[in-house]
Amino acid sequence: MAATTTSDKVKWGLLDAIVVVFALVPVLWIVSLSFKTTPTLTDGNFIPRDWTWDNYKLIFQTDQFVRALINSIGIALISTLIAVLLGTMAAYAISRLDFPGKKALVGVSLLIAMFPQVSLVSPLFNIERNTGLFDTWPGLILPYITFALPLAIYTLSAFFKQIPWDLEKAAKMDGASQGEAFRKVIAPLAAPGVFTTAILVFIFCWNDFLFAISLTSTERSRTVPVALSFFTGASQFEDPTGAISAAAVVITIPIILFVLFFQRRIVAGLTSGAVKG
Amino acid sequence: MSVQEKVRIPAQRTPKKKVALSEGKKQERKLGWLLCAPAAIVMVAVTAYPIIYSVWLSLQRYDLKFPEDREFIGLTNYVTVLSNNYWWTAFGVTALITVISVTVELILGMGLALIMHKTLVGRGLVRTSALIPYGIVTVVAAFSWRYAWTPGTGYLANLVSPDGAPLTERASALAIIIFAEIWKTTPFMALLLMAGLALVPDDLLKAASMDGASWWQRFTKVMLPVMKPAILVALLFRTLDAFRIFDNIYVLSAGANETSSVSMIAYNNLMKGLNLGIGSTMSVLIFLTVAIIAFIFVKLFGTAAPGSDDGERR
C-alpha cells in the first residue's frame, strides 16, 4: 500500500512539474532578457551571462514609460472601482431581490461578455473623436467598465448567493439597527467576494490592448501594453529588446503578486461564476 | 418606460398577484431596478449605441482622408469587403486559429483540470503557476514568444530552426501564434472545467470503479456527462474569445505574410487606412459572425447555455 502511494506521489509530482515549467518558462525568459547587457542580448542564452539593471534604469528615465505606467495604474484602478461598485449594486439586486427584468439584465451581461470588442473600435473611435473623449482617461475607462461589468456581475452574484442573509435578520432581532446589521454582519461576509471580483476586473483592465491602441494617440492616456509596442530604444539604431523586456517585467509584477497571495480567491472567483450560471 | 408597464409582464403569468401587489413587493421591485439601472445603462450605452452607429457608418462612403466625399452608398461597402480576398483570407486564418486552439485547449485544459483537481502533492503550487498565464498581460507573453523565436536572440529559434526565421514564414508564424494563444488561455479553460469536475460525485466514481469500470470508462461514462454544462460554457466562451484574437498577432507577426485575423484587418483599415466606412462594415460583419456562432451554440445545447437558469434562482 505504501509503495503505491509513493509511486502515485511521484507520478503526480512529475505532472505538476510539467505544468509548472510550461507555465513559467516564458515568464522567466522575459525576466532573463530584461537583465541581459546589450552585447549579450542576442546570444540566445536562456540565463544571462552578464547581469545588469541598466534596462530598468533606462526605462524609468523615459517619460514614455513612466507616463504610461501612471496611465495604466490610474485607468485600471478607476475602472475597477466603478465597475465593482455598479456590479455590486446589480449583483445584490439579482441575488436578493425579486423584480421583472432580472433575466433580461443577466442576458444582456452574457451578450456583452461574448461581444467582439473590435466591432466597437471603429464607431467608438469616431464617437470619441467627436465628443473629445479620444485620447483621454475617461475614453478608455468607459469601455473597460462596460466589458468588466458582466464579469463583475456574474462573479459577485455567485458570491452573494452563498451569503447567509438570515444573519442580518437575526442581528436586527438582537437589537442591531439596519445600518449596524449591514456593517457588522453582512459587509464582512461580502467583502471577500467583492475583493476577489476587484482583482479579476483589475487584471482584465490591466491586460487590454485593443481599446488602448485604438482610442489613444499620445502619452496623455497611452497604457503600458501599448507604449511597449511603440518602444524604439534610445537611438533609432538601438534595439529596444532590453527596454521592452524590462517594461514587460514591471507590468507583470502586480499580476505575480495577485496570483501568489490570492491564488485561492482567484480560483474560487473564476470557477464560481461558471458553475452557478 | 413607466413602472406599470414593466409590472404587467409577470402579473400576466401569475394572475393571482395581479390584484394586490403588496407595498413591500413594489418597494422591492423599485429597489431592484434602481440598483441595476446604472450597470444596465452603461452596458447598453457603450455597446448598443455604437453598434447601431456602426451599421449607419457602414452604409456610407467615409474615408477620413477625404471627408468631403462622405455620402450614403447603401450596401456597396459590404460588396467591396465580401468580394475581397483580404477579408476571406483573414476570415480563414481566424477560423483556423479558433478551431485548432480551442480543440487543443479543450484537451490540455481537461488534463490540467484533472491535475489541479486531483494532484496529491503541491496543489497550491500547480494552481498558482497555472494562474500566471491567465493573469499575465497578453502583449507581455507575446513579446516573450517573439523574442524566443527571433533568430539569434531566442532560445527556441536557435534550438528548433537554426537557419530560418520562423516568424516570417506563414505556416510557422501561424503555428507560433496558435501556440502562444494556447499557452495563454489553457489555464482559463482548465479552471472552468475544474468547476465542472468538482460537481462529479465521488460516490458515483467509486461505485463505477467497484463495478469494474476502467479509468477511461469512468471518465467517459460518469465524469463527462456530469461535466457537460461546464464543458459547453468553456467552449462557448473560448470560441468567441479566440475569434477576437488580436494582441498575439499584432506583436508576433503584425499580420505580415497573410497571418492577419479579422480583428487585425478591421483595426488596420481604421488606423492605417483611416477608412471608417469599410472599417465599420468589417465591425458589423464580425459582430454578425459572433452572433451566429453564439446562436448555434445556444440552439445546439439549449438550456445548458450559461445564464439560462441564472435569473430563476430565488
From TrEMBL, chain A:
The keyword Nucleotide-binding does not apply. PROSITE patterns: ABC_TM1 (PS50928). It is a multi-pass membrane protein. It comes from the Bacteria. GO terms for biological process: transmembrane transport. Belongs to the binding-protein-dependent transport system permease family. This is Sugar ABC transporter permease. It comes from Paractinoplanes toevensis.
Automatic annotation (TrEMBL), chain B:
The lineage of its organism: Bacteria, Bacillati, Actinomycetota, Actinomycetes, Micromonosporales. It comes from the Bacteria. SUPFAM superfamilies: MetI-like. PANTHER family: GLUCOSE IMPORT SYSTEM PERMEASE PROTEIN GLCT, TREHALOSE TRANSPORT SYSTEM PERMEASE PROTEIN SUGA. Keywords: Membrane, Transmembrane, Transmembrane helix, Transport. The keyword Transmembrane helix applies. It is a multi-pass membrane protein. This is Sugar ABC transporter permease. The keyword Transferase does not apply. It is found in: Cell membrane; Membrane. GO terms for biological process: transmembrane transport. The chain crosses the membrane at residues 31-56, 86-116, 128-148, 173-201, 276-298. Belongs to the binding-protein-dependent transport system permease family. Residues 91-297 form the ABC transmembrane type-1 domain. GO terms for cellular component: plasma membrane.
